[in-house]
Amino acid sequence: ENRASDILRPIIVEDDYLTVDDIADKMYLSKSSISTDMNEVYKILADYDLTLKKKSESGSFVKGSELNKRLLMLYLYENSFHDALPLYINDDFAALFAYDDNKRREVRHVFLHELRNTITIVESIAPILSRYLCLLTNRNKNGSYVSFTDNEILLIKKLKEYEIAKKIFVALKDYDGFDTDINEVYAFAVLLASYADVLSRD
């Protein structure tokens, strides 16, 4: 699974169609090695309702909703990325999570202050949520935005996490990248709700 994650990191940010040979070249591996791991790559993509585009299709190489792509990016960052960091330090994938260090600490402080006023957060989850906030600013700068159907929005607005997400984004609006579309509030509410089993409400 770690090899599959290593394959996915460079291609999750790729726009052009890639052959197995292309992927092998990016990974400095043989075509046979890559081919062996592609079934696991497809399995991970399917877990996030994502696919790889066909040669005749346009758009990003990884196809699916922006939110699902971000959730996969988070997974790929968390899954042994730190062990592989020297390999990716100048890579586009690492840039997805880049944010000024001082501002990052301030954003984390503001975010956690607002969050702890409403729910008790498990310590291990806070860094994941913080990294997502950095990720969304960089995805927006690259022109990649989340979107939801009217029915999805109605359901999201019923979540307790929606009100929490609104407060967090109001508190962060003066920071670079956070004066953003309401859809980002909906997306963060969904993310908070996805961790509901490890977030203890008062």
Structure characterization notes:
There is one protein chain. By secondary structure, the protein is mainly alpha-helical. Helices cover 62% and strands 5% of the residues. The chain contains 11 helices and 4 strands; from the N terminus they run H-H-H-E-E-H-H-H-H-E-H-H-H-H-E. The chain has a two-stranded antiparallel sheet. Strands 3-4 form a two-stranded antiparallel sheet. The longest helix is centred in the first third of the chain and has 17 residues.
Task: Give the SSE layout.
Elements: H1 2-11, H2 20-27, H3 31-47, E1 51-52, E2 62-63, H4 66-78, H5 81-88, H6 92-95, H7 101-116, E3 119-121, H8 126-141, H9 150-157, H10 160-172, H11 182-194, E4 199-201
Antiparallel strand pairs: 1-2, 3-4
Provide a compact summary of the structure.
With 202 residues, this protein is mostly helical. The protein has helices at residues 2-11, 20-27, 31-47, 66-78, 81-88, 92-95, 101-116, 126-141, 150-157, 160-172, 182-194, and strands at 51-52, 62-63, 119-121, 199-201.
Q: Give the low-pLDDT segments.
A: 86-90
Tell me the span between the first and last alpha carbons. Answer: 37 Å
Q: Give the number of helices.
A: 11
Shape: globular
Q: What is the total tally of β strands?
A: 4
* Fraction in helix: 55-70%
Query: Compute the gyration radius: what is it?
Result: 18 Å
Strand order of the largest sheet: 1-2
Portion in strands: under 5%
Q: Report the sheet with the most strands, covering strand number, pairing sense and barrel closure.
A: 2 strands, antiparallel
Element-level helix/strand string: HHHEEHHHHEHHHHE
Tell me, rounded to a whole number, the average pLDDT. Answer: 85
The SS-based structural class is mainly alpha
